[in-house]
Amino acid sequence: xxxxxxxxxxxxxxxxxxxxxxxxxxxxxxxxxxxxxxxxxxxxxxxxxxxxxxxxxxxxxxxxxxxxxxxxxxxxxxxxxxxxxxxxxxxxxxxxxxxxxxxxxxxxxxxxxxxxxxxxxxxxxxxxxxxxxxxxxxxxxxxxxxxxxxxxxxxxxxxxxxxxxxxxxxxxxxxxxxxxxxxxxxxxxxxxxxxxxxxxxxxxxxxxxxxxxxxxxxxxxxxxxxxxxxxxxxxxxxxxxxxxxxxxxxxxxxxxxxxxxxxxxxxxxxxxxxxxxxxxxxxxxxxxxxxxxxxxxxxxxxxxxxxxxxxxxxxxxxxxxxxxxxxx
Length: 328
What we know:
By secondary structure, the chain is an alpha/beta fold. The protein has 9 helices and 16 strands.
């Protein structure tokens, strides 16, 4: 199946807010050594793409947005082994995946289990592996512990709740609307706090867990950072894995001392899948669980490429639940 000479793609011509995004015809890429060219079935919409568009993560414009997708291999570059034309693959570390065709480094591609919908595979990669490394490696959650999950109705949040509960942890979730309360409870949260209804979020957490939580998984950032720190028990950990509400400003590290010899980490996916064997292991765990139904992935919205601006408005407005996808 030969690729076309041109394709539609979501372009970032300059850094800025969502209005800079445009859909434009681009030359269809050709795979170089060690690369796969895939026909994109679905591409994940993620905050890392927001940070790249804004210039928080430096990428020189113009560039095609997107790094996560699932699709069929249509061509392979020199030196690629283990993949053939027609294979269904997925990645969280591709290049320009908000397009009809995208390049994937073969070293960052994983096979999709037989029978798994490509949209679910695309939806599970970045957020699923993020949740996996957070509860297994960043802070290995154990039975009997209490964890705090912010934005628990979002894509990563829902997965974190499920994985932590599967390990026997008690989960305190935070959400921003009554509709999201039901979503968080539906995936297993033991307690749900409406952060838009409390004046002191940390006090609300401690009303449920007086000693504080063992770990706070925080992908919200600026708006929840202080409450996350104040919710931790002695020697607890704050795993700050994102900044949906904005980046956390510099702070006095003595707060970790006075708070109880606290731990703070800012993990990122690339450092937890840098080794191919580790990537394959995490992806097999996540995609296998999605395929057998033990891990539920909610696709909260599907958008054509032409609605990319609206998709990112919805994501950044935090008005959605689950995973958002662009479907070429």
